[in-house]
């Protein structure tokens, strides 16, 4: 009886499945304008769509499009880049991940999705995590990996995300550079094969390449039209973003920690977490992609992204290592007079047995140098506060000079090439082993002690001036040496997280020989980054242009410096230097006494104007109006309030132009029907370079007809403010 019932049931199931196809499990990750859709086919999780928002997914099973396995693991015949390679406990290298379950919930603008995958044969598990930010149209993805095999496994590759795209052609924009020339923009058409954006330097990892990209589909990237995907890996260590064109129309992005010399022993029940990959899609060009990333970063990634940043004067280019208390106090006096809000004491304030009078000695000995500053830091803070300034300080706690008490006392804390090999120096310094919890505690305590001894310190400039290069840890077991790259970065993150918790009101700047730590990993724990040691405004035009594709103005340290510039010796007008710093988190990097009275008055005016308008720049939406990479020798950007009632427009000339030539700048992001009053900020000359200053002009005209700006020589610039009057 029972048997015949089962038989009937089986026949019924078979019958129904031939008539009604059992539809696949569909997982729809969505924001307001974007959909990322996965389907489960034969137990495999495959990407069906990433791009414009889909209001319905009916018919998904009948699509003939080639589906791509979303997190391809090694051993299943895939010829694509592999996201995961595992050496299992019995020596098996095959991992065949199948769908297990998933869950989704939406709360407060964020849709959270977890998809559980497991190996077909072994107790090995991968969880894919997604956070989809509705209003910002940004998706954040990362993985956790764990297992219950009897013995440890070794992870050999562990991407954070693998995404597939289909288009006729692909244009990749990436940001390369070197010390003092970071974030240079390069765009290239991808051809068959693999293009890698990567670093293997471990620390100061964004100096040569940034872990971010713009991928334009079907045409070169444009700011205001075309489909683009933009993304960034939130990781301050080795990264690798690979773009593989498999056949003409399929491109796979695989992004994550660089697996280079990094295989990772994972014990049963231990959890390996990959860094977050952040990505956004725009069907209206890369400018919207930048707006998405900036809005997301201010709200969800930066420390205190909703708080106005103070104007700092940093002592480096004004004093270098050569100062005493009197010199610093006189710099503070000048700073206060101009309207600066925070004085930051850079390198050179510490070390006694080995005084820090150059980069050759003292790094690691974080006691105040008694000769230079006999009354200590608190005496400086008293002076700063008497002038209405807050006080900040420079540290480089991950590093050590061989000529230091720290190196003498703790040689075992130094990352080193073993067997008595010569250690490779960079800037005369070595690196502390942050994979070691004791070293993590030391690094934490360096900053903790400075902040406990001087509770009024309001800002910490955290520097890092070398790569890993020497490779070897006296702390890690011999079968875990290859963990160093990853554990170093995780150690750094954990120290920074502890400091954030203990000092929620202190502003942290990520600096690494300038822009060597410009990534959303470091920016999770910091407020801003130092964009470059190159403060020449012409060089900054390109550096800031590149960084503003991915990182917002509020986080971009941009300082007014002396002329000729200390890096390039280029002479530029003060106004041009001020107008360039105006495009970021403005500050100063000079000794005020080098300025004439007239210049002091001008800077005073600029700082007052910046204060009155900084919310527009620091919280506004960026619009790139004119690229310095175009051959015409002009550049322009603007920041527009979310309400579109105010905007600051900055235009620059960086070449010579014909006598009758003027720059035509068309604005963006305004309201067509609104009328805006045009005023000029930071003007030095009597006559304005823009005839319409003082006039009221419609948004439609400003955007479609534009304004002519009379800039003929290199280093001329114009800053305009638009205010809606009706
Ligand atoms: C690095 C930083 C500079 C300055 C010096 C101090 O180069 O990028 O801004 O702090 O170190 O040594």
Task: Give the oligomeric state of the chains in this entry, treating copies of one chain as homo and distinct chains as hetero.
Answer: single chain
- First and last CA, distance: 83 Å
**Rg result:** 28 Å
Proportion of beta-strand residues = 25-35%
Average pLDDT, all residues: 95
Structural class: alpha+beta
The DSSP helix count reads: 12
Q: Compounds present?
A: alpha-D-galactopyranose
Pick out the low-confidence regions: 9-22
- Count of β-strands: 38
Helicity level = 10-25%
Silhouette? globular
| Biggest beta sheet summary | 10 strands, antiparallel
Can you walk me through this structure?
This protein is 21% helix and 32% strand. It is of the alpha+beta class and 726 residues long. Strands 6, 7, 8, 9, 11, 12, 14, 15, 19 and 20 form a 10-stranded antiparallel β-sheet that branches. An 8-stranded parallel β-barrel has the order 21-22-23-26-27-28-29-30, surrounded by 6 helices. Helix 4 (325-338) packs parallel to helix 5, helix 7 runs parallel beside helix 8 and helix 9 (537-547) runs parallel beside helix 10 (574-581). Strand 31 (621-626) and strand 32 form a beta hairpin. It is globular and about 75 Å long. It has 12 helices and 38 strands. The protein binds alpha-D-galactopyranose. Alpha-D-galactopyranose is lined by residues 316, 346-347, 359, 394, 463, 465, 511, 513-514, 530, 533.
Give the key terms.
single chain; 38 strands; 10-stranded antiparallel beta sheet; about 725 residues; alpha+beta; binds alpha-D-galactopyranose
């Amino acid at each position: 009886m029972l048997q015949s019932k089962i038989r009937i049931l089986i026949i019924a199931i078979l019958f129904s499945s031939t008539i009604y196809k059992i539809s696949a499990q569909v997982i729809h990750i969505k924001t307001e304008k974007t959909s990322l859709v996965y389907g489960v086919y034969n137990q495999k999780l495959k990407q069906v769509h990433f791009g414009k928002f889909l209001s319905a997914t009916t018919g998904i099973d009948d699509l003939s499009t080639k589906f791509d396995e979303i997190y391809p693991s090694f051993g299943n015949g895939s010829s694509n880049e592999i996201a995961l390679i595992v050496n299992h406990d019995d020596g098996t290298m095959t991992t065949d991940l199948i769908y297990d379950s998933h869950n989704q919930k939406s709360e407060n603008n964020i849709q959270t999705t977890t998809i559980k995958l497991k190996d077909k044969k072994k107790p090995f598990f991968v969880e894919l995590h997604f956070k989809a930010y509705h209003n910002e149209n940004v998706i954040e993805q990362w993985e956790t990996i764990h297992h219950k095999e009897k013995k440890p496994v070794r992870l050999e590759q562990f991407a954070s995300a693998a995404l597939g795209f289909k288009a006729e052609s692909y244009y990749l924009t990436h940001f390369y550079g070197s010390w003092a020339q970071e974030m240079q923009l390069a765009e290239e058409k991808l051809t068959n094969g693999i293009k890698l954006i990567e670093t293997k330097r471990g620390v100061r990892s964004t100096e040569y390449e940034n872990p971010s990209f713009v991928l334009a589909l079907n045409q070169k990237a444009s700011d205001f039209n075309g489909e683009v995907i933009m993304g960034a890996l939130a990781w301050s260590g080795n990264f690798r973003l690979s773009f593989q064109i498999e056949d003409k129309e399929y491109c796979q992005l695989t992004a994550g920690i660089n697996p280079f010399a990094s295989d990772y022993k994972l014990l049963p029940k231990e959890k390996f977490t990959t860094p977050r990959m952040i990505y956004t899609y725009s069907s209206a060009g890369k400018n919207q992609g930048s707006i998405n990333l900036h809005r997301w970063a201010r709200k969800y990634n930066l420390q205190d992204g909703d708080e106005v940043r103070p104007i700092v004067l940093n002592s480096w280019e004004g004093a270098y290592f050569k100062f005493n208390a009197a010199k610093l106090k006189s710099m503070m006096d000048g700073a206060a007079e101009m309207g600066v809000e925070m004085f930051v004491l850079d390198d050179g304030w510490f070390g006694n047995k080995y005084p820090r009078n150059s980069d050759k000695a003292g790094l690691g000995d974080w006691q105040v140098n008694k000769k230079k500053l006999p009354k200590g830091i608190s005496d400086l803070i008293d002076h700063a506060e008497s002038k209405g300034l807050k006080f900040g300080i420079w540290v480089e706690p991950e590093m050590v000079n061989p000529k230091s008490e720290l190196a003498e006392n703790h040689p075992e804390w130094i990352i080193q090439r073993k067997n008595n090999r010569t250690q490779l120096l960079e800037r005369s310094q070595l690196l502390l082993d942050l994979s070691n919890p004791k070293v993590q505690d030391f690094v934490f305590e360096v900053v903790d002690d400075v902040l406990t001894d001087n509770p009024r310190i309001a800002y910490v400039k955290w520097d890092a001036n070398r790569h890993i290069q020497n490779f070897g840890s006296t702390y890690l077991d011999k079968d875990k040496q290859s963990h160093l790259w990853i554990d170093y970065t995780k150690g750094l993150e954990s120290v920074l997280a502890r400091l954030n918790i203990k000092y929620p009101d202190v502003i942290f700047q990520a600096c690494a020989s300038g822009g060597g730590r410009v990534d959303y990993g470091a920016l999770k724990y910091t407020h801003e980054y130092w964009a470059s040691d190159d403060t020449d405004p012409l060089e900054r035009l390109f550096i800031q242009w590149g960084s503003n594709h991915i990182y917002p103005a509020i986080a971009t340290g941009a300082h007014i410096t002396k002329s000729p510039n200390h890096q390039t010796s280029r002479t530029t007008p003060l106004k041009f230097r001020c107008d360039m710093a105006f495009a970021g988190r403005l500050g100063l990097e000079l000794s005020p006494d080098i300025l004439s009275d007239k210049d002091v008055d001008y800077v005073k005016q600029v700082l007052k104007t910046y204060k009155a308008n900084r919310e527009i720049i620091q919280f506004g939406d960026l619009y790139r109006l004119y690229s310095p990479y175009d051959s015409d020798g002009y550049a322009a950007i603007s920041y527009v309030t979310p309400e579109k009632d105010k905007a600051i427009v900055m235009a620059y000339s960086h070449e010579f132009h014909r006598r009758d030539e003027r720059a035509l700048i068309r604005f963006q992001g305004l309201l067509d029907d609104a009328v805006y009053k045009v005023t000029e900020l930071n003007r030095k000359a009597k006559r304005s370079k823009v005839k319409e200053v003082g006039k009221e002009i419609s948004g439609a005209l400003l955007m479609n007809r534009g304004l002519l700006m009379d800039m003929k020589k290199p280093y001329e610039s114009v800053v305009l403010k638009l205010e809606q009057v009706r």
